[in-house]
Amino acid sequence: MPNATTSKKFRKPLVIAAIVLAVLCLFVGCSNAAPKNEAAGAKSYTLTVVDAEGKETVHELSTDEEMLGAALLSAGLIEGSESEYGLFVTKVDGIEADSANEEWWCLTKGGETVMTGVDSTPVADGDKFEFTLTVGY
Question: Any signal peptide, and if so, which residues (predicted)?
Fold first, then answer.
């Protein structure tokens, strides 16, 4: 039967081993966690937002949605009001167009003006969209 001195000899290494094991589990658990802000979806696409000063903010996104409007709404990047023609986008990436200053959001795809509303614009893997805050009607 072990004596008290032998038990004390093993206690310190056991405590240290338990601490090391706990730290390792913490690091392994953190490294296996999914990265924050990673959107899930089968289709990857890019949205570039250009503000009134010309500053560009690029968003790399993924979605399973068929239409751009639904994808951007679920990503929290656009807001607007419903009209008979679909969603009229009034805010993109937290920037609101001021109608008193004749500001509006112009949607383009690969630099070309999109001729459909955001609700009826399909999104495909690899698409590159731009929303540019435009002044003047």
Answer: 1-33
